[in-house]
User: What shape does this take?
Amino acid sequence: MGRRRRRKVIRTFRRTIPKVYICPQCGKRTVTVQIVKEANIAHVACGTCKISGDIALSDGMTAVDAYCAWYDEVVAGKNWKSLNRKI
Ligand SMILES: [Zn+2]
Assistant: This one.
């Protein structure tokens, strides 16, 4: 009865692409990216503080890329006031 079953832990390399992202303004994970193919833009919006913006998509850009671009934009200017104090 000494048969031990060793469960092999299979590490599946899962690429989880989150649908919601962290908001640079309010810090909540409520930012969604909506790809608008007709206009070739990504509409990024936060469900909590309602900050939003449109990012022009270039070839091969994904929702994540659009989010990053938008994040940079927000951090670089527009709504940086409230965050500025903490740094
Ligand atoms: Zn927000």
About this structure: The helical segments are 63-76, 81-84.
